[in-house]
Amino acid sequence: MMRKVQRTVPAPAELGTEVIGVPEGSDVELDLRLEAVMEGVLVSGKISAEAVGECIRCLDEVRLDLDVSISELFSYPENRVAEDEEEDRQELVDELIDLESAMRDAIVSDLPFQPVCREDCPGLCSECGAHLADDPDHKHEVADPRWSALQGILTDGMPNQASGSPAVGAPDDTKES
User: pTM for the full model?
Assistant: First the structure.
């Protein structure tokens, strides 16, 4: 015996990771097929929802349409044997199926580990936090303090005369002829 079920249900709490997930109470579309098998009921089909999170590079909002497959066997309690006790199996409880943990497993495993708003997102400026996508030519002139002793040298390799040091290869004025 087989039955098709299409339902819209509210998303349970914590359906996602710390950076992206399906907001609690938002719509989750279920398009499932329930089949009676010897061991119990095989639930298979698609789960659709919208995940919301933050881009890990620029912190902009990320919205991702999810369409994940599910296939889970819910066994009859009387068919469970002693060796199955250690296994994490789903069971029918009073002829009801609790899809929450199966739905959580399917959706969370399909979410990106590091969500981005777009693949080429440049992120934020590490100096001032500016959004680099808005200003691709953004930059800071930051002098490395380790090079400060060399700032007096001109681009042609000659020292700055104001610094008081002799030029490399310049004649020595202290020599007597």
Answer: 0.67
Q: Is residue 59 a contact partner of residue 132, using CB atoms and an 8 Å limit?
A: no
Q: How far apart are alpha carbons 127 and 139 in whole angstroms? A: 9
CB 115 within 8 A of CB 53: yes
pLDDT in tens, 16-35: 999 999 999 999 999 999 99
Q: Which among 93, 106, 96 has a CA at the least distance from the CA of 15?
A: 106
Q: How far apart are CA 157 and CA 167, in angstroms?
A: 9
Q: How far apart are CA 169 and CA 32, in angstroms?
A: 85
Question: Which residues does 76 contact at the CB level (< 8 Å), separation at least 6?
Answer: 39, 40, 91, 92
Low-confidence ranges of the chain (pLDDT < 50): 82-83, 86, 156, 163, 170, 177
